[in-house]
Specification:
CATH class: Alpha Beta
Oligomer: single chain
Largest sheet: 4 strands, mixed
Number of domains: 1
Strand order of the largest sheet: 1-2-3-4
Distance between the termini: 46 Å
CATH topology: Double Stranded RNA Binding Domain
Number of strands: 4
Strand content: 25-35%
């Protein structure tokens, strides 16, 4: 999995990129054999420099695999919480896609079986 980071009005410390990498590598279980070809583009930083407190930290993750783009975005009070929230949202999307892919495979097998019984 290829992961690229970009800081938005913020210099990314190593601890923040390590946390984001740990969260994204945990998503490999939803990808199966395509985990090596997946790409993640992560934008971390402040939403605006005008505000000093509140929900000013943003994490945006663009994740592409199998020709499909998944996007997650979160705005929170700390950068760590924003990373957690965005990765949870992305995991939710990947779980849904995997469930749909498995169900489609099962329905295809069921249709083949019912078709073969007709002969």
């Amino acid at each position: 999995m290829e992961i690229r980071y970009k800081g938005l009005q913020y210099d990314l410390p190593q601890a923040v990129t390590d946390k984001a990498q740990k969260k994204l590598l945990g998503l490999k279980k939803y990808l199966g054999t395509d985990a090596d070809t997946a790409r993640a583009y992560v934008e971390l930083g402040r939403e605006t420099t005008a505000h000093q407190s509140g929900r000013i930290w943003v994490a945006r993750i663009n994740f592409s695999t199998r020709g499909t783009l998944y996007r997650a975005e979160a705005t929170e009070e700390t950068i760590e919480n924003a990373i957690d929230e965005a990765s949870n949202e992305l995991a939710k999307e990947l779980r849904r896609a995997k469930r749909m892919r498995v169900n489609l495979f099962k329905r295809g097998g069921l249709m083949f079986k019912s078709f073969s019984r007709g002969f």
